[in-house]
């Protein structure tokens, strides 16, 4: 089984002549034409040819990086906000202990072992 990679213009607008897969001296399993409209090569995956230019993928990568950067900034702002609110909550607590209404008394030696009269 083999496939043909048609000729194409690379990113530098130079015509690259077509070739068949697998290439002579290459991997015998690479029987499919893969890549993009401006970068083609032989590979073993029949679903690895994309009908657009390779530079298009860089724009997708830049878009993903911008999106991830925005998400990271939002997450960082959320974490800072939570830390500030926790600090404010802890620092504004009253310093004295709250009165529970129960007074604890220590037991005397008379009430512990003494007789009741």
From TrEMBL:
Subcellular location: Membrane
GO cellular component: membrane
Transmembrane segments: 57-90
Main localization, broad class: membrane
Any matching Pfam family: Shisa_N
Keyword vocabulary terms for this entry: Membrane, Transmembrane, Transmembrane helix
Domain Shisa N-terminal: 3-48
Listed name of the protein: Shisa N-terminal domain-containing protein
Naturally occurring in which organism (per UniProt): Pavo cristatus (Indian peafowl)
Lineage: Eukaryota, Metazoa, Chordata, Craniata, Vertebrata
